[in-house]
C-alpha cells in the first residue's frame, strides 16, 4: 500500500492593503475593487497531510470554525471537486497568530496555503494558473496569497499584477479586541456618495509603487463611524513617529508605517505601556508569499 506523503507545513502570512478602492458592485453581489496588497511577516502556520476519508480541521482558536465554515475546508474541497487530484481525506492544522476578522486576510491566506500544500502533496502541476482561478472562488483576497508581494489586485481580487519597488518600510500593526465582518463593511459602503477618484498619480498597473499620500481605504470611514477607536489609534501612530497610518482591509486593524525597525519598536512599547493596545512589528515580504517551512 502506498504511503501518504506529508505533512507539509506552510508559512501563511497576513496582508496589509495600502490602497483599497471600492469601484462598484456587480450583479452577482461581489464588489469590484482595486487593491494594493503587501504581505507581511506576521504569519500563521498551516500544516496539511493526506489521509483518512474526510477533511478535518484543527485550530483551537475560539473565533475560527473547525467545520465546513473554515476557509481551509473550502479550499481542500474545491481542490478535489475541480479534479486537481483524485479525492482524498485531508488533515489540516492551523496555528493562528494573525488576528481573526481583523482585515489582515488571515483566513484567505490559510486557504491559499491549503491549496499550495495540496498541490505539493499531490504533485499537481499548474502551468495555466488554475490554482489562482480556483482561489478566487473561495474569496477575493485568496488569489493574492498565491501570487507575489507586493501586488495590485483588481476585478473582484483575481486580476493580479506586480507592484514595486517597495520602500523598506516596517509596519506597526495595532489590533483591537473586536473584529469587523468584511461583508458588513462592504455592504455599508455607500456607492452613491461622491466618488473620491483619481487619487493615484499614475496607473497602478504600470507597476509603480504608490507614495504615502496616495494611501487610501474606502472602507475606513464605514468602520470608524462605528468604531472611533480606529481613528484614535491612527492618530497615536502618527504621534509616535509613524510616517503614515491607515486601517487595513475591512478593519479594524490599523497599521503605522515606519522607516526604521527601532522607531517601530519604540512606538510598540508606547502603545502597550500608555494605551494598553496590543501591537506587532512586521516587515514586508517581497516575492513569493506562501512557502513551505523547513
Ligand atoms: P478579510 O479582510 O479577507 O475579510 P479578515 O482578516 O477580516 O479577512 P479573517 O481572519 O480571514 O478576517 O476571518 C474572517 C472570518 O472567517 C472569521 O470570523 C472566521 O470565523 C472565519 N474563518 C474561516 N476560516 C478561517 C481561518 N482559517 N482563519 C481565520 N478565520 C476564518
List the helices and strands and how they pair.
Blueprint: E1 8-25, E2 31-50, E3 55-58, H1 71-81, E4 90-95, H2 106-122, H3 130-138, H4 142-145, E5 148-149, E6 151-154, E7 159-162, E8 170-174, H5 182-188, E9 216-217, H6 220-226, H7 229-239, E10 244-247, E11 254-258, H8 261-275, E12 279-285, E13 287-288, E14 291-292
Parallel strand pairs: 1-9, 3-4
Antiparallel strand pairs: 1-2, 1-14, 2-4, 2-6, 2-12, 5-13, 6-7, 8-11, 8-12, 10-11
Helix pairs in contact: 1-2, 1-3
This protein binds adenosine-5'-triphosphate.
Q: What's this model, at a glance?
A:
This protein is an alpha+beta fold. The chain is 28% helix and 29% strand. Bound molecules: adenosine-5'-triphosphate (ATP).
Any descriptors?
binds adenosine-5'-triphosphate, alpha+beta, 294 residues, twelve-stranded mixed sheet, 14 strands
Written overview of the protein:
The protein is of the alpha+beta class. It contains eight helices and 14 strands. The radius of gyration is 19 Å and the shape is globular. It binds adenosine-5'-triphosphate (ATP). Residues 63-65, 69-72, 94, 100-108, 110, 141, 182, 249-250 line the site of adenosine-5'-triphosphate (ATP).
Share of helical residues: 25-40%
The rounded distance between the terminal residues' Cα atoms is 27 Å
**Residue runs with pLDDT of under 50 for 5 or more positions:** 202-206
Rg, rounded, reads: 19 Å
The sequence of SSEs as H and E is: EEEHEHHHEEEEHEHHEEHEEE
Biggest sheet: strands, sense, closure? Answer: 12 strands, mixed
Beta-strand content? 25-35%
Tally of individual helices = 8
* Structural category: alpha+beta
Give the overall silhouette.
globular
What small molecules accompany the polymer chains?
adenosine-5'-triphosphate
Average pLDDT confidence is: 90
Compute the number of strand runs.
14
